[in-house]
Write a structure and sequence with these properties.
Length: 101
């Protein structure tokens, strides 16, 4: 429980928060793999409608560093992502990115 509280306190810092002000007919999208979201419980100014859509490109997600390591070559970056998934990661740097063997 202590670890969960530590993580929750870390991710809810102001520097990580982003608020979307409502506008008529607004559509807001986010990536659930990299974002935690919640509606404002005290906002009763309008009806909140949520429709979930899942989009699958058929590709494994590619980390920014993998694309950089591949020199912008998408196919090579995808190979690196597959290598990461297979467990070919040998080192995690201070930014949390994996270096491959």
């Amino acid at each position: 429980m202590e670890l969960i509280m530590l993580l929750e306190n870390h991710i809810s810092q102001d520097k990580y928060l982003f608020e979307v002000a409502y506008e008529p007919n607004q559509v807001t999208m986010w990536d659930n793999r990299q974002l935690i979201h919640k509606g404002l419980v005290n906002d009763t100014s309008c009806k909140r409608v949520i429709q979930r859509v899942s989009v699958n490109s058929g590709h494994l997600p590619i980390a920014k560093k993998e694309l950089e390591w591949a020199g912008g070559d998408f196919d090579r970056a995808l190979e690196l992502a597959h290598e990461r998934r297979r467990g070919g990661v040998t080192y995690i740097d201070t930014d949390g990115y994996a270096s491959l063997a």
